[in-house]
Design a protein that fits this description.
heterodimer, A: 110 residues, mainly beta, 0% helix, 51% strand, globular, B: 121 residues, four-stranded antiparallel beta sheet, 11 strands
């Protein structure tokens, strides 16, 4: 069974840049994994940031960007702000109709 | 404005059944894949099931054989029939809209507010 792994936690200073990653246990992430990224604050529904590797969802500021870095999917936040402090989840398409979420990264801005 | 509104959650005993609904508006429902995602208390997101535009259905191993996803394009509504419920099915259930029309695999872009399923005797 394929597992999707994210950093459990990360910290960034206000105004700083942070890159969160998402790896597959079964091999390398590619554009055919169609990685997408979601932001969630406690008690709220998730919000879509990025889909299809690097397409920003409607209304998402351009300081959020998605890419493939090496064999992982990556979400980069530039100019981090206090309200970026959230949980971030990646979602990978494994093929045959199956998706898997990563375990999530808790981002702290301090 | 694109909106998704889930309903049907509630308290059910182990072994019981529930049917969740997701009413969609603001987009051409039949042109988009739809997905159910759940989140157990204090846990991360879990993909549960998907329904493609072509009519194919897909399930996580954890729910296969117990849950059934369906859609009524005439009513712009997605459903999740949940049978043989277990304590580990207790979660907030979200429906979500496919990010790219006509395709299934690009992830999702719009989420509902969620409906809570509690499984307890």
């Amino acid at each position: 069974q394929t597992v999707v792994t994210q950093e459990p936690s990360f910290s960034v200073s206000p105004g700083g840049t942070v890159t969160l990653t998402c790896a597959l246990s079964s091999g390398s992430v590619s554009t055919n994994s169609y990685p997408s990224w979601y932001q969630q604050t406690p008690g709220q529904a998730p919000r879509t940031l990025i889909y299809s590797t690097n397409t920003r969802s409607s209304g998402v500021p351009d300081r959020f960007s998605g890419s493939i870095l090496g064999n992982k999917a990556a979400l980069t936040i530039t100019g981090a702000q206090a309200d970026d402090e959230s949980d971030y989840y990646c979602l990978m398409y494994l093929g045959s109709g199956i998706y898997v979420f990563g375990g999530g990264t808790k981002l702290t801005v301090l | 404005e694109v909106q998704l509104l889930e309903s049907g959650g509630g308290l059910v005993q182990p072994g019981g059944s529930l049917r969740l609904s997701c009413a969609a508006s603001g987009f051409t429902f039949s042109n988009y894949a739809m997905t159910w995602v759940r989140q157990a208390p204090g846990k991360g997101l879990e993909w549960v099931s998907g329904f493609s535009v072509s009519g194919s259905t897909y399930y996580a191993d954890s729910v296969k054989g117990r849950f059934t996803i369906s859609r009524d394009n005439s009513k712009n509504t997605l459903y999740l029939q949940m049978n043989s419920l277990r304590a580990e099915d207790m979660a907030v259930y979200y429906c979500a809209k496919g990010a790219v029309g006509g395709t299934y695999y690009h992830g999702v872009d719009v989420w509902g507010q969620g409906t809570t399923v509690t499984v307890s005797s």
